[in-house]
Design goal:
The protein has 17 helices and 13 strands. The chain is an alpha/beta fold and about 475 residues long. It has a 7-stranded mixed beta sheet with strand order 3-4-5-6-2-1-7. The radius of gyration is 29 Å and the shape is flat. The two termini are about 30 Å apart. The chain binds guanosine-5'-diphosphate. Its main location: cytoplasm. Its cofactor is K(+).
């Protein structure tokens, strides 16, 4: 039997709020077993939680302090270090009513656990060395992934594909430092020039590798956060129909933004693995029943916010003043022009628009009703998002700004380092810059990162993760 310890033990509801089939309360820390044992009674007589084998699922009852039965449940103990946090973890699986799980959480708190902060389980996994910082961040990306490609990227990060790249560069940098320092310590050995030349070659190679990784940021960011897409066009041009055709894709995931009662403001469509984050879907749908005056200011802001502009023109009707207003708004922008209602006789042509529209646009004719042209639209979007990164494994893509900034800073230090070498300066100076690059890369894996940054990263997680 285990002994009671003073270490902080945390508890939280791990399943989403609301009613569900199963609800899970998770407890982690030295005393997780003691806490759970106070209110979980196994069906088998005299079978204390503390005596459960690790990962054994045990059936029993949740009993409150007055002896009342709260629910039937399964209890699983995962003893350190073979758990998510590497601490003792106990998970209670009860029926998924929100009152039930809250009562169980309350019992855990009354018996010595404290309420976990957002992301605290994963933070402990990181602090206990189970995951590095980049892997820990990918846990959140997995939870929020909206397409297979986003999920492949996040899962690759969690498996450590990206971390391994960074670690391998850090390792090479350490070797360079060791070499340079040897030549500082033993100048008479005449290894100085060789060391410098070798360092120069290796640093150049690492710098190039960083540039390659940074090229994936554009794609990585979109796969993680979605491609902010603005759909613009006069009333009745076919915006809602296109939106419905895109969202009706079988794998499309529609997310309601909490707090909005009717249509959500943003929805995600899965376009060939790219999460298309469509801005203001409610606004687009509203135009169906009320002829909306396109406020110029509003539209300009809307277009500015977007990574991708989809501009719609009704090909079955001559261009109207409203179309011309939109054309003016699109001046010097880039995106995709969609000539809608391809199934009807055409009144305007691609060339008509090309002559009027000044900007960088690809033209595609579509019919939302026949689903015609949608494949071409999908291919165009995918090729834009993956430009330069097609065929590469998403698991090594850099996908968040903090990591991209650390890579940029490391690259800059390596650049300075090369200048120092080329100027014929002493090894000491070279070492300073290489070491800074090594530290910057360590911020990605979490080896060299401030505590407040760690706190800030985990605070973005949900409670119970
Ligand atoms: P919105 O006001 O821009 O959102 O336009 P809607 O999507 O509501 O479409 C306006 C009208 O055009 C509706 O009656 C649609 O059925 C029709 N429509 C939309 N797309 C097509 C299309 O591809 N072909 C045809 N023939 N009609 C379409």
């Amino acid at each position: 039997m285990r002994d009671f310890a003073d270490n902080d033990t945390i508890a939280a509801i791990a399943t989403p709020p609301g009613d569900g089939g199963i609800g899970i309360v998770r407890i982690s820390g030295e005393n997780a077993g003691f806490v759970a044992d106070k209110f979980f009674k196994a069906a088998k007589k005299d079978f204390s939680v503390l005596d459960f084998r690790t990962h054994q699922a045990v059936y029993g009852k949740i009993i409150d302090d007055k002896g009342n039965i709260i629910d039937e449940a399964l209890c699983i103990a995962m003893w350190a270090p073979n758990s998510y946090t590497k601490e003792n973890v106990v998970e209670i699986q009860s029926h998924g009513g929100s009152l039930v799980v809250h009562r169980i959480l309350e019992l855990a708190i009354n018996h010595g656990a404290r309420l976990a902060q957002p992301g605290e389980f994963t933070k402990r996994a990181f602090l206990n060395g189970r995951l590095d910082l980049s892997q820990a961040q990918s846990v959140m990306d997995i939870i929020q992934a909206r397409t297979d490609a986003s999920l492949r990227m996040a899962a690759g990060h969690l498996q450590g594909a990206f971390s391994a790249e960074i670690q391998s560069m850090r390792h090479s940098i350490l070797e360079i430092i060791a070499h340079l320092e040897a030549s500082i310590d033993f100048p008479e050995d005449d290894i100085e020039d060789v060391a410098k030349q070798e360092a120069e070659e290796k640093i150049d190679a690492i710098k190039n590798r960083i540039s390659e990784i940074l090229k994936t940021f554009h794609t990585g960011r979109i796969l993680r956060d979605g491609l902010m897409t603005a759909i613009i066009g006069k009333p009745n041009v076919g915006k809602s129909s296109l939106l419905n055709a895109l969202l009706r894709e079988e794998r499309a995931i529609v997310t309601d933004i909490p707090g909005t009662t009717r249509d959500s403001l943003e929805e995600y469509a899965n376009i060939g693995g790219v999460p298309l984050r469509i801005i203001d879907t409610a606004g687009i749908r509203e135009t169906h029943d009320k002829v909306e005056q396109i406020g110029v200011e509003k539209s300009v802001a809307y277009l500015q916010k977007a990574d991708l502009i989809l501009a719609l023109f009704d090909a079955s009707r001559p261009l109207s003043q409203e179309d011309l207003d939109i054309i003016a708004m699109l001046k010097n922008k880039k995106g995709i022009v969609l000539l809608t209602k391809k199934d009807l006789p055409a009144q305007i042509d691609t060339e008509d628009l090309q002559n009027l529209l000044q900007g960088d646009f690809k033209y595609i004719r579509i019919s939302s009703i026949n689903k015609d042209g949608l494949k071409e639209l999908e291919e165009e979007i995918v090729s834009r998002v993956y430009s330069g990164n097609a065929g590469q494994a998403e698991g090594c893509f850099v996908n968040n700004l903090r990591q991209a900034e650390a890579l940029q800073a490391a690259q800059k230090h390596l650049e300075e380092c090369l200048n120092t070498i080329r100027m014929g300066m002493a090894e000491d100076f070279i070492v300073i810059d290489v070491r800074s690059a090594w530290e910057k890369l360590g911020e990605i894996t979490g080896d060299t990162v401030d505590e407040d940054i760690i706190d800030q990263i985990f605070s973005q997680f949900c409670i119970g993760k």
